[in-house]
Design a protein that fits this description.
Layout lengths: L10 E9 L2 E6 L5 E4 L2 H21 L14 H21 L11 E7 L5
Antiparallel strand pairs: 1-2, 1-4, 2-3
Length: 117
């Protein structure tokens, strides 16, 4: 069952992973895609973009809630779902004893829309 986000409730899912010589961050629900040389910079860009979007949706007299339920472009939607697999393969290849979400080249997190308030 898919839960539709509104300006008052919902959950946003993020993934950040290393791709070649930089990091790529994707928000599954807003369609945001950010790139930078560090995980922290990508996380900050995604957070700042989300805050700006939630403010715009909250302040607008128009119904902009569809903006909280927009998928990223197909290429990045695919990467969002394949990133854990790629991180796991990398972990096995390097013989690391970590879960995929603990790898320095991959993080996955979610936040409640209310946590941005």
């Amino acid at each position: 069952m898919h839960i539709r986000n509104t300006k008052k409730q919902g959950v946003l899912h993020y993934r950040i992973f290393k791709w070649q010589n930089h990091y790529v961050g994707i928000c599954l629900e807003t369609g945001f895609v950010e790139e930078s040389v560090s995980i922290d910079a990508v996380r900050a860009k995604l957070t700042n973009g989300t805050v700006a979007l939630l403010r715009a949706v909250g302040m607008s007299k128009q119904n902009l809630e569809d903006s909280l339920n927009t998928r990223p472009p197909l290429k990045y939607h695919f990467f969002y779902h394949i990133a854990p697999l790629l991180a796991s393969i990398e972990m096995i290849r390097e013989g690391q004893d970590k879960s995929a979400t603990e790898l320095s080249s991959f993080i996955s997190f979610k936040r409640s829309i209310m946590s941005f308030a």
